[in-house]
Specification:
The protein has 216 residues and is mainly beta. It is 5% helix and 49% strand. The protein contains two helices and 19 strands. The strands form four sheets. The chain has an eleven-stranded antiparallel β-sheet. A three-stranded mixed β-sheet has the order 2-18-17, with no helix packed on it. It has a three-stranded antiparallel β-sheet with strand order 7-8-9, with no helix packed on it. It starts with a strand and ends with a strand.
């Protein structure tokens, strides 16, 4: 059984035995080159057949792009001077000239792209180079970091999230800064030096690849 970055313990009968969750005091790898955007050769949009989320890699950083479905009632369109429907297009949505709509059950439905910054000037997440093809994306949360492996494999994006066996010993020799134990969860903050991190096999701390095809 695998233990992901976020662990749900509500339904598991551990009988008071604390499960261990790991985080890092600093971005990984230690002493690595921090980047503010991916390499230019990797710019593009990447999408999986199993998800509606698109990863956008550009000179501005890394973003996720998804579609949020909104709607407005026909009565609101008729009563408001802000809205106007011409054919299958709705006018009056702030910041958008017009948007395609589908009329159903007396409402106009439309999809809006939601773009969220993952790495960029407004994000506390940290991107560090591992090689010419790979990065560690360090998610910042609760004053600590959780790593994620980003790789470009044969032109497509492969993502491997922080994932380890529940009884792993892979971090046993890594220096710790603190431990916090609450009910059935013990959180250990690790502070590896470069030599400590070099001894860790990526296969032991990252899960299987989630592949995203580059969109043409």
């Amino acid at each position: 059984m695998k233990n992901f970055v976020v662990i749900c313990l509500i339904a598991l009968p551990f009988f008071g035995i604390a499960q261990t969750s790991y985080e890092f005091s600093s971005p990984l790898p230690p002493g690595g080159e921090q980047l503010f955007a991916p390499f230019a050769a990797h710019f593009g949009e990447y999408k999986s057949d199993r998800s509606d989320i698109v990863f956008e890699l550009s000179e501005n950083g890394i973003f996720t792009v998804s579609t949020i479905v909104n709607s407005v009632s026909r009565d609101s369109v008729l009563e408001s001077s802000n809205y106007k429907v011409v054919g299958n297009y709705l006018f009056g949505i702030e910041g958008i000239d017009s948007i395609a709509v589908v009329f159903q059950d007396n409402r106009y439905y439309f999809g809006m792209r939601h773009r969220e910054e993952v790495v960029g000037p407004n994000s506390k997440n940290v991107l560090i180079r591992v090689s010419n093809q790979s990065y560690l994306l360090n998610f910042f949360e609760n004053e600590a970091y959780q790593p994620c492996l980003f790789s470009i494999v044969e032109g497509d994006l492969a993502i491997q999230y922080f994932d380890y066996d529940t009884d792993t010993e892979v971090f046993a020799k890594v220096p710790q800064t603190k431990q916090v134990e609450e009910k059935t969860m013990k959180t250990v903050t690790l502070a590896p030096q470069r030599e400590d991190f070099a001894q860790i096999n990526f296969m032991d701390m990252f899960g299987s690849e989630r592949k995203y095809k580059k969109m043409q």
